[in-house]
């Protein structure tokens, strides 16, 4: 048994030994207000030429827009998903762990 499998097995046991289906504690009421007050900041200022996005010949260069012109969901796309049901959260966590295990096994089989 490899070292990776030993550590994974210990983590797997710990996951199921500490499994609880209790709901997460409610967050403070002012936490969402602070998120709404935060102004999204893009990685480049408006009217910056975005190199590599224009792949068609003879087209004008693609320019960055001001932050206000982008949809609101764009600024939250990198945040982790919040699951209401703990079973869904556990299933998502297991799927991520399974994908990582498969990647590890495939990598180890090439060595």
From TrEMBL:
Quote the cellular component terms of the Gene Ontology held in the record.
mitochondrial large ribosomal subunit
Does the keyword field hold Translocase?
A: no
The alphabetized UniProt keywords are:
Mitochondrion, Ribonucleoprotein, Ribosomal protein, Transit peptide
Citing just one GO molecular function, the answer is: structural constituent of ribosome
At the top level, the lineage of the source is: Eukaryota
Name the PANTHER family on file: 39S RIBOSOMAL PROTEIN L54, MITOCHONDRIAL, LARGE RIBOSOMAL SUBUNIT PROTEIN ML54
Q: Which family does it belong to?
A: Belongs to the mitochondrion-specific ribosomal protein mL54 family.
What name goes with this protein? Large ribosomal subunit protein mL54
